[in-house]
UniProtKB/TrEMBL annotation:
<dbReference type="InterPro" id="IPR027417">
    <property type="entry name" value="P-loop_NTPase"/>
</dbReference>
<dbReference type="Pfam" id="PF00158">
    <property type="entry name" value="Sigma54_activat"/>
</dbReference>
<dbReference type="GO" id="GO:0016787">
    <property type="term" value="F:hydrolase activity"/>
</dbReference>
<keyword id="KW-0378">Hydrolase</keyword>
<feature type="domain" description="Sigma-54 factor interaction">
    <location>
        <begin position="50"/>
        <end position="166"/>
    </location>
</feature>
<dbReference type="InterPro" id="IPR002078">
    <property type="entry name" value="Sigma_54_int"/>
</dbReference>
<protein>
    <submittedName>
        <fullName>Lon-like ATP-dependent protease</fullName>
        <ecNumber>3.4.21.-</ecNumber>
    </submittedName>
</protein>
Length: 284
């Protein structure tokens, strides 16, 4: 029989705040290799690609909700910890171009821009650094690659091949600082590993596919989802009945979806003054 249903409102609210101050999706977030469930082959391929003297670019292919980005980041951190000479001081840079972004905005964000600004009677040049330079000796992760036009992708491939980004029209004057002259003539460093997250491989032009390793992620089966649900509930200090766990695993479309459902039923349990999740919570 369910207990503590008549728990005072203030006590229930405090319990909710204590247990879900950090959402369950954050509690189960992949931060290290040991947190990854059911993607052994993908992890092996990524680690192998990143451990090379010249790390390979990667296409992360697979269904939504399988935490491809978080798995990639965990692999990156592991390789860094192992003492990778390439990634020693590199960063994990993320970019999410949206459909409403202009082509110019995406281009400038990725590659930077040389701008002229008026200063008294002079025109001074200012260099805006793009993500390809920020990702130098690191990883540039791009989601929503389907929102990037092909000519921008071709430019990205050129940068990957040359390992630097150059600016087309440049104007060097006596007022141009020495360091800027060198960057304008030689280009900015952009030696990085590209990782692109896609659901449909057709969204990647052939020119990019030829320089990438395709790493496929599996749809999480019921066994993996059930293990994920139990571990997440445990991290949130919840006890979940087996039949509830089975039902969530049966209807969830992915790991992310399973955690979203678990968050909902956990909140309902707490509203009723329980840290035990029961079947009735699924009906709320």
């Amino acid at each position: 029989m369910t207990q503590n249903i008549m728990m005072p409102y203030e006590v229930r609210q405090r319990l909710i705040q204590e247990r879900l101050a950090e959402p369950l999706k954050e509690k189960c977030r992949i931060r290290q290799i040991e947190d990854i469930l059911g993607q052994d082959e993908a992890v092996f391929r990524i680690l192998n690609d990143l451990r090379k003297d010249r790390p390979k670019n990667i296409v992360l292919l697979g269904p939504e909700g399988t935490w491809k980005k978080d798995i990639l980041r965990a692999c990156f951190k592991k390789v860094q910890y192992e003492g990778s000479s390439f990634f020693k001081n590199g960063e994990f840079i993320e970019y999410y171009p949206e459909k409403n972004y202009s082509d110019d905005l995406i281009y400038t964000t990725l590659f930077g821009r040389l701008e002229e600004i008026d200063c008294a009677s002079m025109k001074l040049q200012r260099l805006k650094i793009g993500l390809v330079t920020r990702a130098n000796k690191g990883i540039l992760y791009i989601n929503n690659i389907e929102n990037v036009k092909e000519y921008v992708i071709f430019k990205l491939v050129d940068v990957l091949n040359e390992k630097k980004v150059k600016f087309g029209k440049i104007r060097i004057s006596e007022a141009t600082p020495g360091y800027l002259k060198r960057f304008l003539t030689e280009g900015l460093p952009a030696d990085f590993c590209l990782a692109v997250n896609v659901i449909d491989i057709k969204s990647i032009p052939e020119d990019m596919l030829t320089i990438c390793d395709i790493v496929s992620f599996k749809k999480q089966d019921k066994r993996v989802l059930k293990e994920l649900i139990k571990k997440t509930a445990d991290k949130g200090l919840f006890y979940i009945e087996d039949d509830v766990c089975d039902e969530i695993a049966s209807v969830a479309k992915s790991g992310e979806d399973a955690v979203r459902i678990l968050q909902h039923v956990a909140l309902n349990a707490l509203k009723n003054g329980r840290s035990k999740i029961i079947k009735e919570d699924l009906k709320a």
